[in-house]
Amino acid sequence: MNLINQSPAAPTAPPPRRLWALPVFQKLFVGDAAARVGYQVTLFLLPLLVVTRLHGSGSQAGLVSGSQFVPVLLFSLGAGVLADRAPTRRLILAGTLARGAALGALGLMCALTGVTFWALLATAFVVGTGSVVYDVGYQAGIPSLLRPEELTRGNALLQSSNSVSQMAGPALAGVLVQQVGLPLSLTLATALFVGAFAAFWLLPLEQGLASDDTGAGSRGGAGGRATAGRGRSALAGLRFTLGCRPLRDLCVQSGLFNLHEEAFLTAFLVYGVRAAHLTAGTIGLLIGFGSIGTLLGSAAAGRLADRRHAGRSLVVGLVGASAGFLIGPLLSSHVPTIPLYGTAFLLNGFALGQYNVYAVSMRQAIPPKRFLGSATAGYRLVSLGLAPVGSLLGGWLADRLTAGSALYVIAVSMTVTSLLILASPIRRIRRVEDASALGGRHHDDDSD
Asked: What residue intervals traverse the membrane (predicted)?
């Protein structure tokens, strides 16, 4: 595949900028970090309560966990249209507010009447809906905030924050439930979303970072894409995603990975409580420990972005992340549970951090800017749409087989399906900015 070099024709390229020195990026980073910690606490807390407080089955835990991803199927395309037409700041604030309000209401209900399965199910659905609105708006806005050559570095920093939140969230949720109880745990999660809302409220997303440092940009800000959504249908992004081979391969592989990961995490939750007899805090720490690896992998990808082959690094990251989970069930009869699964999550996280940096950067670089929001939503519909199936599958396998056997079956399947990426042309893309040439080969017309 011969990729067109999309470097600007100007005689001199703009000097590289230190993203940390840009006030808008600082506010974006802090607000997103608070929102992601709150979300990770919620993601782990709700199914954990099914197992520990309600003494529910693995299938019930999977149902609550999967309910947080059902809105991806229902609302992603609509959120994509909004991201192309509405200010990004408005979408981010709405998604953050919805999640904080849902957790606050659940905390109040628990303090007054106690937790119920249906309350957890409803809260999971509302939190998932808010996350769809937030994530689509946020991801669609980043390419308007960063120059193409800055996407890998910027996403590496943001993925590092996400890694820390994935590490802190489960550990924090497990310890809080164990030490201070459910109402205070939910109060803290609510407070994190309130803090994120305040940071985003002060963020002038209408001013783009892609301009020079004076703020007089030519590309426009994340909230000011006045022509972006003109004539754009809800299915436009999905058609583009499925019609562009590299983007389609990324989307399918991410979907398969998310399906297996949710299945593995649900089965591991049941395994930890009922087979390994671990406390909620220990389970949270083990899952969170894997995010140390993600943090290191994201940082390495960002630092070495200019020297590494993007496509090959992406492939190695995906296959390595899948194989990392496999060592847990393979060696479970020879190595104690805590060091074994701590190592498995660490290896999985390191490889996943590398994969995420390149995958997110490429899927932001490939779609034409005029419908980046709808393309992002179409991608997320497929890549995250299988997550609730994975949660239900993991719980069902843990009930039908032993939890340990379920982990083995899931890990083997995950590793085998990850090898499909070896047949994709995306492994030949040398630089992330080269991927933008692929977007011009599809949907050159602006009508749908």
From this structure: 33-51, 63-83, 103-127, 180-203, 278-301, 313-332, 338-358, 379-398, 404-423
Query: Within 10 A of 303 (CB to CB), how many other CB atoms are there?
Result: 12
CB 350 within 8 A of CB 319: no
* 327-376 residue pLDDT tens: 988 888 888 888 899 889 989 888 888 888 888 778 777 777 666 667 77
Pair 225, 353: CB distance under 8 Å:
no
Q: How many angstroms separate the Cα of 373 from the Cα of each of 237, 435, 437? A: 8, 18, 18
Structure tokens at 126: 């509302």
The 8-class DSSP code of residue 271 comes to I
Report DSSP state, residue 305: T
CATH no. of 22-202+234-439 = 1.20.1250.20
Using alpha carbons, select from 154, 131, 210, 130 the residue that is nearest to residue 28: 154
Place of tokens 């080269």: 434
Is 128 within 8 Å of 72 (Cβ atoms)? yes
Contacts of residue 75, defined as CB under 8 A and 6 or more positions apart, other chains included, come to 129, 132, 133
Q: Which of 157-161, 270-274, 281-285, 419-423 has the lowest mean pLDDT?
A: 157-161
pTM above 0.85, yes or no: no
Please state the domain extents for the chain.
22-202+234-439
Question: DSSP label at 237?
Answer: H
Instruction: Centre a 10 Å sphere on the Cβ of residue 85 and count the other Cβ atoms it contains.
Output: 15
Mean pLDDT of the chain: 76
Assess contact for 372 and 228: CB atoms under 8 A: yes
State the residue for tokens 């809800």: 234
Which residues have CB under 8 Å from 113's CB, separation 6+?
none
Calculate the CA dihedral of residues 23, 24, 26, 32 and round it to 10 degrees: 160
Cα separation values, 224 from 22, 89, 93, 146, 227, Å? 19, 10, 16, 15, 9
CA distance 423 to 403: 33
**Cβ-based neighbours of 56, under 8 Å, separated by 6 or more:** 50, 117
Q: What is the DSSP string of 28-72?
A: HHHHHHHHHHHHHHHHHHHHHHHHHTS---HHHHHHHHHHTTHHH
Average pLDDT over residues 91-120: 86
Taking only the tens place, the pLDDT of each residue in 178-219 is 777 767 777 888 888 998 898 888 766 554 434 433 333 332
